[in-house]
Amino acid sequence: MIGVGIIGMGQTPHVSGRDDVDESELIQESVALALQDAGIEASEVEAAIFGSAITSIQDGIEHVGKLVVEACAGWRKPSFRTQTGGTAGASAALAAIYMVASGEFDCVLAASGTLRSGATGAVAQKALAMAADPVFRRGLSGGALLGLAQTFREYMARTGVTEEMAARCAVQQRTNGALNPNAHLREAVTFEEVMTSRPLAPPIKLLDMCPTSVGSAAVVVASNRWIEQRGRTVDCAWVRGFGSFSEPSIYPNRDPLDCLCVRESAHKAYRMAGIADPRRDIDVVELYNAASFQQMIWSEALLLCAPGKGGKLLMSGATDREGEIPINPSGGVLCTNNGSDAAMLRIVEAALQVRGKAGPHQVPNVRTAVAMGWGGNQQFSSVMVLGGGLG
Amino acid sequence: MAEEMVSGSLSMEYAWNKGKGGRLFLENLAAKRFVGSRCGPCGVTSVPPRLFCGRCLSKTVLPVALSDGGRVESFTVLEAMGKAFVLVRLDGADNLFLHRYQGASAPERGMRVRAVWAESRRGEITDLEGFAPDGN
After folding, report:
1. ipTM, 2 decimals?
2. How many CB atoms lie within 10 A of CB A2?
3. What is the reported pTM?
């Protein structure tokens, strides 16, 4: 395969709302940062991919991709939109990687994000209800919370994980997020605050859940030829491996705890990257934790511990910022969730870590980082292995 | 409304096809029966029924009658709506079926439940009101 690297990353600070920009201007902010980081002009980008989740109803704009072509540097270039729910931002980055790996393109930009213009209260609920199957799930939609709460309960029953452990996850993630200048929620929380926060869908409580954030993210992906020509081989996050697997939406054959798509994505990505012992070979992980408990399930699916041992791994402290394999030094999705760019932010943050440019939340001596995306009706996944150095 | 914004609303009507598998399922639901489908090559039984197997895409999928009883695998209460939901493994089915919980007592994992039918039924998912503890 042609070598592929991420040579530019951009993200806006994430906040609860923006009234000063439109969709296209919001996306442009992170695209401009990514181009600047890559040290290139928009004209050097050969194709532009836009990833967004379920924005037609949430934003009140149908086919929002058509509005952001120029913002993504897509003028007179191949351009299309990926839409895989929460995974959309990672899917956009993967599409760019596939294109560069094909040899047809040397430099492709992927961007993601949304203003969520209508996505407050009633509109957000209506939009999520519209994501449910119209024949079999109409009137039964509980949005993301419903599936997450039931998965968490089943996970507790099967493995002995507790609500207290999930609260510990929330404390860890919010502590990390406090150091990330681009995170939305930047205040640490205590164990007691999580445990006594309002029940949303038992066993999930308010502080076990991600916020609704506004912002955007972008990456510039280039071929090894392009990167070598510009002398960027060291200051680059090399794509060592990737995997992306999908599962059905509601039926049949799906066990919500099996994490089949994430596990298979991890197997493929690790095989490509030559990772034999994930715990030893990976230095930092950025994963998609819309709810606190998920990081324990994903630890298992990402092969950081044995099946059923996600709680044990958490409680050992190994995944803390100072631990042996930190999970989400950025604070993760629990601190910042735009929906559209959340999975791309995992890639941006993992790339920052291997380039040593994460700033206040940099983990020392990161050589290999893993970024995981997840979304749809708990069904689309992506796992990417990024490495620094000479490629 | 702030001067930075313009406001508007969307109100639209849709009609969604039930599909062949969906029609079979919902017609039977109206008659208080559950129907699923079993894939010949895989042997996997799914509910609602499908025209093709989601795993192997085989079209040798046959309808099978299922019980209206099953076991609760997981549950939650959406506090904002005040509604309880259960994931039920219907007897004879390999996958889980989501619906409302209608019991008076709190649901539990492993609890036996049976369908609660709406009095007036018209071939929609809400012909089933949900599941309640078996024997109630």
Report:
1. 0.78
2. 13
3. 0.92
